[in-house]
Amino acid sequence: QVQLVESGGGLVQAGGSLRLSCAASGRTFSSYVMGWFRQAPGKEREFVAAISWSSGRTYNPAFMKGRFTISRDNAKNTVYLQIDSLKPEDTAVYYCAARTDRQALFGSWGQGTQVIVSS
């Protein structure tokens, strides 16, 4: 069973940076795609970024490019999300997710890590 544990969230001032971590266990992840999503209060969950564990290829929605960078450390089975130039509208719970490269939907989720950006 896939287990995902996020960390690195917190309270940060606008303009600052954070690096979120997602420690993955329970599987060999070479055929997985790992993703980051976020959900702000009262809003739908939205896709932030994804990365292919095997190739390292990354995916971002156009409006997420530039400030959000996803990366992975194969040796540590950890995926990261670097967020730069934080804005108050980035305040949300950030979730790590996983799917195999044959699945269309992300089926495994972490518990989330809260990011609060103060103005």
The overall strand count is 11
Strand-pairing-aware structural class: mainly beta
The major β-sheet equals: 7 strands, mixed
Give the number of helices: 0
Return the string of H and E elements: EEEEEEEEEEE
Amount of beta strand: over 45%
Distance between the termini: 40 Å
Helix content range of the residues, please?
A: under 10%
Uncertain residue ranges = none
What overall form do the CA principal axes indicate? globular
Name the assembly state. Answer: single chain
Mean pLDDT: 95
Radius of gyration: 13 Å
Describe the structure.
By secondary structure, the chain is an all-beta fold. Helices cover about 0% and strands about 55% of the residues. It has strands at about 5, 10-15, 20-25, 30-40, 45-50, 60, 70-75, 80-85, 90-100, 110, 115-119. The strands form 2 sheets. Strands 2, 4, 5, 6, 9, 10 and 11 form a 7-stranded mixed β-sheet that branches. β9 and β10 (about 110) form a beta hairpin.
